[in-house]
Amino acid sequence: MKVICKHFSELTTTEYHRLLTARVAVFVVEQECPYQEVDRTDLEAWHLWLEDEEGHFVAYARIYQEATIHFGRVLVVKEYRKQGLGNLLVEEVLTWIHRHLPKQPIVIGAQAHLQAFYAQFGFEPVSETYLEDDIPHIDMEKKTNLS
């Protein structure tokens, strides 16, 4: 797998189109959740994705900084699921954050059904479950980026 991470300002229009296509396919169409997928956060974010040996876009997440470090829009393209790529993607995101934005906690707004998935990476719940776009979410934090 090839790992690519670029700030929005470095993306080509083709790369941005590929990542938006995947995000809309998963978060709007597949999850049947009509909402504004394109937002201002994209403009300040680093966009990390995985490509297979043939250059196919297979997984994606974006990383951004506010008061704390965040990542989100975590996805694996439908045809590539059940291959451990979600784990690989989160490991790559955390490695990138540790290298480029260390010594800060990482906070995510995870879909509630993925709480155990993120817990295996050291994330702990810091909120009650809440609805975001009619999908149950929970805020989780990883403090071990502080070393």
UniProtKB/TrEMBL annotation:
<feature type="domain" description="N-acetyltransferase">
    <location>
        <begin position="6"/>
        <end position="145"/>
    </location>
</feature>
<dbReference type="InterPro" id="IPR000182">
    <property type="entry name" value="GNAT_dom"/>
</dbReference>
<protein>
    <submittedName>
        <fullName>Acetyltransferase</fullName>
    </submittedName>
</protein>
<dbReference type="Pfam" id="PF13673">
    <property type="entry name" value="Acetyltransf_10"/>
</dbReference>
<dbReference type="InterPro" id="IPR016181">
    <property type="entry name" value="Acyl_CoA_acyltransferase"/>
</dbReference>
